[in-house]
Task: inverse folding
């Protein structure tokens, strides 16, 4: 706090003998010199120094030119961090999020789902309202017990099981020496690369 006070006093004194820009420059340079004197190898900044530079950066456009011991982006990062901390404190006040659902209600939802597997979430919501329990559809979907799904086979397993039933079909054209175009249909089995059927015609609509 002392470097800030000394800088402010120097600023007030310089108002009577120099221009405003020179006074602001002195105000910016004096805390930096004090910080350098107080440290040996590396300047150590206090929270008051960060507040000072954050305040000065909003009042004076030429503050980056007078900054020596840190980069201007560091001061901007301080300001952004202060804003984030402020709004984090504001948002964390009071109870966060929706109120927790009681354990008894969770167990009741699960019991109703097990006893009535054909009921949907809206039906369970309606039944709970009859006993003065207000829950939403999303809450029922969250706490209901879902039946375990069997693991789905991989694509490699599918090909291994059905390779005997898979075929490949291709329909392409072949130009001839006499500048005619032949249409070729080829069907091939995947298992042994065996040709199941092929045909060639000059007219694709022919029998």
Result:
């Amino acid at each position: 706090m002392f470097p800030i006070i000394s800088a402010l006093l120097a600023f007030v004194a310089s108002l009577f003998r120099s221009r405003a820009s020179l006074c602001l420059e002195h105000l910016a340079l004096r805390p930096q010199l004090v910080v350098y004197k107080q440290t040996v190898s590396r300047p150590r900044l206090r929270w008051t120094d960060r507040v000072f530079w954050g305040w000065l950066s909003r009042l004076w456009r030429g503050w980056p030119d007078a900054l020596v011991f840190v980069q201007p982006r560091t001061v901007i990062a301080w300001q952004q961090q202060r804003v984030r901390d402020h709004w984090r404190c504001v948002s964390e006040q009071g109870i966060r999020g929706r109120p927790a659902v009681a354990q008894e209600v969770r167990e009741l939802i699960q019991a109703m789902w097990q006893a009535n597997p054909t009921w949907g979430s809206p039906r369970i919501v309606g039944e709970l309202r009859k006993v003065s329990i207000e829950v939403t559809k999303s809450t029922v979907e969250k706490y209901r017990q879902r039946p375990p799904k069997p693991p789905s086979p991989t694509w490699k397993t599918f090909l291994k099981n059905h390779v005997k039933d898979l075929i490949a079909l291709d329909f392409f054209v072949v130009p001839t020496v006499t500048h005619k175009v032949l249409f070729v249909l080829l069907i091939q089995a995947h298992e042994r690369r065996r040709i199941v059927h092929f045909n060639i015609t000059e007219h694709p609509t022919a029998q």
Observations:
- The CA atoms of residues 60 and 141 lie 56 Å apart.
- The mean pLDDT is 77.
